[in-house]
Amino acid sequence: MGISITIVGEKNQADLSSVLSRAKEDLSDTIPIVKPILEAVRDRGDLAVQEFTKRFDGLEVDRFFYPVSEWKGSVPKDLQAALEKAKENILTFHSAQIPQPVDVTVSGNKLGIRYTPIESVSVYAPGGKALYPSTILMGVLPAKIAGVPHVQIVTPPQKGGLPDGLYAAAKVAGADAIITTGGAQGIGSVAYGTKTIPRSEFIIGPGNKYVTASKIYLNGLGVIGIDSPAGPSEVLVIADDSANPEWVAADLLSQAEHGEDSVAILCTDSKTLADKVALEVEKALNERPKRGEMKRESIEKHGRIFVFSNLESCVAFSNEFAPEHLEIQTKNYKELFQKIKHAGSVFLGPYSPVAMGDYISGTNHILPTAGASRIYSSLGVMTFLKRVTYQEVTQNSLEKLYPHVKVLSEFEGLDEEHGNSVKIRLPKK
């Protein structure tokens, strides 16, 4: 079957619309499933977490909280070096995001902004189809740069214990602890806190639909703050006839490798490139069988190649799609980049595959999906900072501005107290 190729024209606009109309996974049936789990964890704490861990993970666990400082293991030197280099690059890029305090004089008054960190954060690291030490670095390091006092990892328990690679990533990133519980019970345990699991004020990181539903539900109750809700991973590649079809195919498949529901789209103005990429995708599926069934299902169900009449139409489609990852592999990629309005992270030129951002370049791979880049940004230092505004009003300014306060408070019907709280500060005449 292979990846589908569509020549875009007036007669197949519905085909485009079906791709553009994707939405975040419908969680209406999932929230009723996680709700009693979350309530049980809230009410019965560690005991409920133990019961759900046995039911869903098949493991009997009597301990969930592991200080990272307790880990005395080691990992191969090349893995340690890779983690350290990734940390160096992530720190460099994210340190540049630290905002500066603001002081400004307005109508004679000193106004300003200062930033304060969230007090405690949990970083969810999935443990199902793959293990993600890289997610630990991406989540913990920006939080630490922001000054969050306590950062803990939440990850499902593994038979035989957690791999040293996860511990090594947690230690390199500076995490304080690892909490070995996953799914809805894991989210509930850090949202409410238990006797042995510290409560967090904010939780980030991708997970399955039960994790996402739990985060959204608890956030709606005001129990915990969350990042943008996560959906299937996705990439959109804009390429012209200068692109290497083998490289483009590899980039599409790198997203398909995440899961059966991952989305991989190529937009091009070259039918020749489209045909070559389709052939390279099929060739790679046959030659690289690891996760083969998963990759093929993703490509055949959610992989698409659209051939537009020009690159401007490719950009227009991308802006409507608002992808998580956007690659631009064209001769004029810098020019096209200036026209991009919505994307989680953009990869420019032929030597910038998404995998560089996933692991080592320094940007963050925790990104908005399913069109959420229209309103959300990538995870960064600002995710963990709160803006606190302040004002210091002078007596002279209060006198000059009171007439306006009087008018506005009377119009709103709040002059008796709002207006009066200013008026009583005026000099007696």
From TrEMBL:
So where does substrate get bound? Answer: 233, 255, 258, 325, 358, 412, 418
The molecular function terms in GO held by this entry are: histidinol dehydrogenase activity; NAD binding; zinc ion binding
Gene transcribed to yield this protein? hisD
Enzyme class, first EC level, given as a word:
oxidoreductase
Record flagged with keyword Oxidoreductase: yes
Gene3D superfamilies linked: 1.20.5.1300, Nitrogenase molybdenum iron protein domain
Respond yes or no to whether keyword Metal-binding is given for this record: yes
Matches recorded under SUPFAM superfamilies:
ALDH-like
Spell out the protein name for this chain.
Answer: Histidinol dehydrogenase
- Cofactor(s) it depends on: Zn(2+)
Identify the residues that bind NAD(+).
124, 185, 208
Q: Which UniProt keywords apply?
A: Amino-acid biosynthesis, Histidine biosynthesis, Metal-binding, NAD, Oxidoreductase, Zinc
Residues annotated as the enzyme's active site: 324 (proton acceptor), 325 (proton acceptor)
Q: What is the lineage of its organism?
A: Bacteria, Pseudomonadati, Spirochaetota, Spirochaetia, Leptospirales
Any idea of its EC number? Answer: 1.1.1.23
Function recorded in the entry: Catalyzes the sequential NAD-dependent oxidations of L-histidinol to L-histidinaldehyde and then to L-histidine.
Q: Which domain of life is it from?
A: Bacteria
Q: What does the record give as the reaction this protein catalyses?
A: L-histidinol + 2 NAD(+) + H2O = L-histidine + 2 NADH + 3 H(+)
Q: How is the cofactor bound?
A: Binds 1 zinc ion per subunit.
Q: Which GO terms describe its cellular component?
A: cytosol
